[in-house]
Amino acid sequence: MKVTVCIGSACHVKGAAKIVDELQYLIAQKNCGDKVELAGAFCMGKCQTGVSVTVDDTYHSLKPEDTKTFFEEQVAKKLK
Ligand code: FES
Hints:
Helix content is 36%, strand content 25%. By secondary structure, it is α+β, with helices and mostly antiparallel strands. β3 and β4 form a beta hairpin. The N and C termini lie close together (11 Å). Bound molecules: FE2/S2 (inorganic) cluster. FE2/S2 (inorganic) cluster binds at residues 6, 8-11, 43-47, 52.
């Protein structure tokens, strides 16, 4: 599974770096770094929403405070 966080300037301003930090932490905590690849991307063309994050090819718009829920629902639950 590949989780990509937009680190373009608009998303950076909305807390992309915090989301990356938290995802790194959650991945380490769940010990699933071998199953989840965390990547960065520049502008995904949706700057007017929250921070753009994709899980494989599915788009999500995230606030930093939603990272944990997002991780549980969209990442952890889908791991085998
Ligand atoms: S900077 Fe993230 S979608 Fe544009």
